[in-house]
Amino acid sequence: MVIRKAFMTSLPVMAGYIVLGTGFGILLRSAGYGALWALAMSLFIYAGSMQFVGVSLITGAASVLTTAVTTVMINARHLFYSISMISRYKDAGKVKPYLIFALTDETYTLLSDGKIPEGADPDAYRFLVSFFDHCYWVLGSVLGSFAGEFLPFDSTGIEFSMTALFTASFVEQWLSAGSHLPALTGLLSTALCLVLFGPENFLIPSMILITVILSALRGRIATPESRKSDGRREEK
Predict the structure, then answer these.
(1) Distance between CA atoms of 54 and 62, rounded to whole angstroms?
(2) Is residue 29 domain-shared with residue 106, that is, in the same domain?
(3) Within 10 Å of residue 133's Cβ, how many Cβ atoms?
(4) Residue that wins the pLDDT comparison between 30 and 138
(5) Considering its fold, how many domains does the chain have in total?
(6) Are residues 143 and 176 in the same domain?
(7) Residue 142 included in any domain
(8) Are residues 109 and 221 both part of a single domain?
(9) Are residues 142 and 181 in the same domain?
(10) Span 130-148, average pLDDT
(11) Which end of the chain is least crowded, N or C, by CB within 10 Å?
């Protein structure tokens, strides 16, 4: 059954998202914002690292422009790793908008290899994996908010949990990916831009460089599944 298969695939993310979402809920509660805020942010924003930063933006009374620029800078990484999902999502029909919205780093890690359980509808499977991951994050955020209200927590340094999850996701991606070109492109491009532009200004240039390089190399890093799919469409 596709629901069971999707749920089993999402279990590793459940462990991370509930813990990290709880951390976000606690941090948000410590800033004076309750469970409804945690629910709304996790439901409609659904961007882990941006939500952690968003707490500082809210408490610091940041302007709309500052918030917009910060959001673009933090989430710009989605531009380059989503390139490899274009061929898989383009014919997803009604669930396509949600699949795009819910493509987080961790969900990408689960779906990027292109493997679909035997007998499962690809679009339904990807939708359910994305949906389960989203639910875990929302659940963790709300639980954290309630925990922060009734239990004493020192939230100092809790935002580093996202860095830990990114590192774990990168390692998993490296071990399971058929091509290491995307990972190496990200590492080398970021290191180069860090040297050229410095730690305060390297993010946007590195994202642009990564996007350009991966777009140029798209044919070389295409998965076997996408090549077969493209071949079938050409035959038709």
Answers:
(1) 9
(2) yes
(3) 26
(4) 138
(5) 2
(6) no
(7) yes
(8) no
(9) no
(10) 94
(11) C
Evaluate whether residue 124 is within a structural domain.
Answer: yes
Span 169-179, average pLDDT: 72
The 10s digit of each residue's pLDDT in 195-225 is 998 887 776 787 788 878 877 877 666 544 4
Are 145 and 165 part of one and the same domain?
A: no
Residues 121, 22 share a domain:
yes
Report the distance separating Cα 20 and Cα 187, nearest Å.
24
Tokens of 139: 């659940």
* DSSP result, the chain: -HHHHHHHHHHHHHHHHHHHHHHHHHHHHHTT--HHHHHHHHHHT--HHHHHHHHHHHHTT--HHHHHHHHHHHHTHHHHHGGGGHHHHTT-GGGHHHHHHT--HHHHHHHTT----TT--HHHHHHHHHHHHHHHHHHHHHHHHHHHHHS----TTTTHHHHHHHHHHHHHHHHH-S--HHHHHHHHHHHHHHHHH-TTT-HHHHHHHHHHHHHHTHHHH--HHHHHHHHHHHH-
